[in-house]
Amino acid sequence: MANTRWDLIWKLIEMALKAISPQIKETIRDAVKRLEEVANQTPNPIDNIFVMLLKVLLSSLDEE
């Protein structure tokens, strides 16, 4: 049951990311790039892990 719920949530996120306007997609990409730059400057490895997770979650932006 829980897997089905998460599958549905992920599918909805994917659909929303594919449907948003190009301007929003570009803004999100820029924000993630900036976060990656900042994360690389901090001593906290969790920052880098968080950015990596964001990049994975948002990878569907590039699947057009």
If you had to describe this structure to a student in words, what would you say it looks like?
This protein is mainly alpha-helical. Helix content is 80%, strand content 0%. Helix 2 packs antiparallel against helix 3. The longest helix is centred in the middle third of the chain and has 20 residues.
How would you concisely characterize the structure shown here?
This protein is an all-alpha fold.
Strand count: 0
The secondary-structure element order is HHH
Mean pLDDT score: 88
As for the number of domains, it is 1
Detail the poorly predicted runs: none
Give the end-to-end Cα distance, rounded to a whole number of Å: 30 Å
Main sheet specs: none
Number of helices: 3
Shape: flat
Q: What class do helices, strands and sheet pairing give?
A: mainly alpha
Helical content stands at over 70%
Radius of gyration: 14 Å
Residue fraction in strands = under 5%
Give a quick set of tags describing it.
80% helix, mainly alpha
Note the topology.
Blueprint lengths: L1 H18 L2 H20 L3 H13 L7
Helix pairs in contact: 2-3
